[in-house]
Amino acid sequence: MMSRRLLLKLAMLACCTLTLSGCWDNRDINHRSLPVVMGISREDSKYKVFLDIPQTSDDGTRSMLVTRTGQTITEVVDEISSNMETRVDLLHLKVIIFERKYAEEGLIDSISSFMRSREISAKAMVAICDEDLGTFFSKLQKNSSSDQTVLYNFFEKNAGWSPSVAVTRTWEIFRSIHSYTRDIAIPLIKSGKSTVIENVGAAIIREGRMVGQITADETLLMNAFDEESAHGKIEVMNHASVLIVSNSMKHHVALKDGDPYMRSQINLKVSVLETRGEPSVDMIKDELETLLTQRFNKMFKNIQRHEADILGVGQYFRTRIPRNKLAHWRTEYLPRLKIDLDVKTTIQNEGNLKTVRDASIK
Amino acid sequence: MRLADRICNRFEHDGDFIIEEHILAGRPVRIMGFKSLINLPKTWANLQSRVREASLDFSRDPDSALIVLNRLGHRISEPDEAALLAVMTAGDLIIFYEDPDTYLDVVPIPVTLTRSIEQPLNENVLQGSASAFNDDLATNFGLLKKELNSASLCTKVYLSGNHSPRKLALLYLEDQVEPNLLHEVTERLEANKNRDLYNLQRICKALGFQPWKAVPKFYTTELPMEAAHALRQGRIVLFMDRFPFAMILPALVGDIFMMENDRNYPILFMYLIRGLRIAGIMINLIMPGLYVALVSVNPEVLRIELALSIAESRSGVPYPAFVETLLLLVVLELIIVASVRLPKSIGPTLTVVGGIILGQAVVEAKLVSSLLIIILAATTIANSAVVGFQNSLPIRLFKYLTLILASLFGVLGILSGLVIICAYLASATTYGIPYLYFIKPKDDSHDG
């Protein structure tokens, strides 16, 4: 008797799980198209979407480029999906590329719809293309037919990323749109002549709109400012080039008569890679420090002019400025911000050759 | 008609039955028994030498002959057909003489119907005593007593059943055993004395266990070392005649991955080996489900490179991942079930056909993906990592639960499957001792 009731319960449970689980919507991985790269441009108030879909076949994987225009991005993706033999699943979307023109018009709508979407990962990386998306994708297609993850690997920390490339994820842009004190830089790329992709620098984004750009060298400094380990970057000067081994930052902030003031110290540990002539250690240090200070000041003026806080220095003032005034950080405080950058370099080693010597020792 | 003649008539056509007339101690006697159970020449010689040792002259003193005869065995007090049959089927010899009519139950020299002590057949021992339990109850006692030389080892023997009585033995260490456990088991065995207990299911029923539980109630082992360890832990060991295993009661979760024999290795390797066994259990439970979950429900968890290569290996496979996995799992189960019964000479053929030809062909015919073959091979190998064959059975069953849940709910389903399994294991108890209980030996001979 007891077991019959148990059996009934089990049967009920099985029926419920089968009918309520929605398992009939599960699609096997070989019936899904998993685009890795999505490109978005805007033509006459219509979106043009590029999807780079890796296709598997017996002779390895090839990638397929699908393009379509429509009123909304989801509509375009849906249409592409209905025209393909598999369902387009944006789960594996790794890189989203906006055309520069569209980025200058403002990305707020797209970014918030990506954040809202359950399919697109908030970790997807965002880049801005400095040329026409059509030509960019056709070149990408031509040069990387065997490897579909070129663009993804370009930004991947354990693959092809280098410190002069900014890495920005969708959620960071969303955060910058809604934050008083933090803007963001999005990497700016275009198709290269000999390599597949060329790093142009980074776009300055202010409240979701691209307002200016910084160079690749300045991007390196920005990454160093975020302690995004500046490993492996070569810094060319008149006399030598060095490898930044590690960097750390120290900040001191204050409000002086309502004006924000910041004293920052970058500690760089470098190792000498190349020398031209016979520069001494002190010379290399001095040159590096002046070069970096100049470069930083130039970049910072640029930022202040665009009123876009891509370094996120406003974060350090959040405890010092009342919230109602903080809303005007970009317009009122940032342009008045005085920043003293102190670059301290330690030459950790000179590589395998001990030829660079202090003048005194010589 | 006399009783002896009646029995004679009854076994007229029985080739095994023997009834002979002899002179023993100067008196005519009849001996009765089964040839297959009694070594007759030796028994007879033994009986004669015992009579001779009395060195009496029976022709002068007929009473002394009676005394000597009665000493040969014990008298069956109320001889009837059933009583005599019971004595004979148990393998004893009956001596019958007249004036007065007496039936003697004599313990003969038996025919050896048991293999000698051998290496364990179901589990191999790498470092440790290699003698395994045997079909014979007394041999098993002896092995265990050799292994556990202790005065507090108690043995209770029961003769259960009316139809075909069978000996059951219950062993425990007086000073270690859980009193409650002992009480429950002895009480139930006493109460079910009339039942014929000749297999584990019947014993389980007699001991009052629920029959449909997936968790084994006994930990059966062939190794005296394991049985002795269980006794030291305060558990009870049951032996059944003609059953070459010790049944350790209650079975605990530790039996799945802990063996006493592990302690013959350095402690580091003991823990590593046990860790591997646990990993084997987890792999067995999770892997098939994980494959289905990642391939059909949650492909976003995979790295893109892996996702693409899996998609490539699955291109052209007609079935959904769940059906594909289930199909191959059933084939694998069939191989296991089939190879258990097969003679040793045919077994390898089956392995070749099943493992190589079937596996290769099924991939080449694009019925399943090559990745699945790898996963199921790993699962099957991992299944054998646990201690004891009876412990691998529930794990084999439980993996289907995770598989089904994974096909419905993906990675979350695997997690909920594991939770359900844990809850089920936690709910299992034997006489109030939870299945998930870890016993520490009460003597301090163990550390770690």
Automatic annotation (TrEMBL), chain A:
It comes from the Bacteria. InterPro entries: GerAC_N, Spore_GerAC-like, Spore_GerAC-like_C, Spore_GerAC_C_sf. Pfam families: Spore_GerAC, Spore_GerAC_N. Transmembrane segments: none annotated. The keyword Oxidoreductase does not apply. It is found in: Membrane. Its main location: membrane. The keyword Membrane applies. It is a lipid-anchor. Residues 201-351 form the Spore germination GerAC-like C-terminal domain. Residues 1-21 form the signal peptide. One of its GO terms (biological process) is spore germination. GO terms for cellular component: membrane. Keywords: Germination, Lipoprotein, Membrane, Palmitate, Signal. Residues 25-190 form the Spore germination protein N-terminal domain. NCBIfam families: spore_ger_x_C. Belongs to the GerABKC lipoprotein family. This is Ger(X)C family spore germination protein. It comes from Paenibacillus mellifer.
TrEMBL record, chain B:
GO terms for cellular component: membrane. GO terms for biological process: spore germination. The chain crosses the membrane at residues 236-257, 278-297, 369-389, 401-426. Keywords: Membrane, Transmembrane, Transmembrane helix. It comes from the Bacteria. Belongs to the GerABKA family. This is Spore germination protein.
